[in-house]
Amino acid sequence: MANSPHSSLFDNPNKKERTLYAQYWQEKLKGNNDIPFPDSLVEEVAGTTEGFSFAYLKEALYVSLS
């Protein structure tokens, strides 16, 4: 952790954690036929969001799926 007043107390999620988070949202939206969330999207999200905090990841998912 850096000594910057803007540094986070938590590390950004690694690829495995980003994958699990995307899968969480995939499962949560499973019954919603209006919002497709295929496995390929889980992999794309996890692979393209390196450096994102969970908050930014949630925002990215929310914006892209709405």
What does this entry show, briefly?
The chain is built from 3 helices and no strands. With 66 residues, the chain is mainly alpha-helical.
Percent strand? under 5%
Order of helices and strands: HHH
Radius of gyration: 13 Å
Shape designation = elongated
Mean pLDDT: 89
User: Which regions have little confidence, pLDDT < 50, spanning 5+ residues?
Assistant: none
The helix count comes to 3
* Number of beta strands: 0
Q: How would a textbook summarize the main sheet?
A: none
- Distance between the ends: 34 Å
User: Percent range for helical residues?
Assistant: 40-55%
Structural class assignment:
mainly alpha
Structure description:
This protein has 66 residues and is mostly helical. The chain is built from three helices and no strands. Helix 1 runs antiparallel to helix 2. The longest helix has 14 residues. The chain starts with 14 loop residues before the first helix and ends with a helix. The model has no long low-confidence stretch (mean pLDDT 89).
Record the SSE blueprint.
Layout: H1 15-28, H2 39-48, H3 54-65
Helix pairs in contact: 1-2
Provide the descriptors you would attach to this structure in a database record.
66 residues, mainly alpha, 0% strand
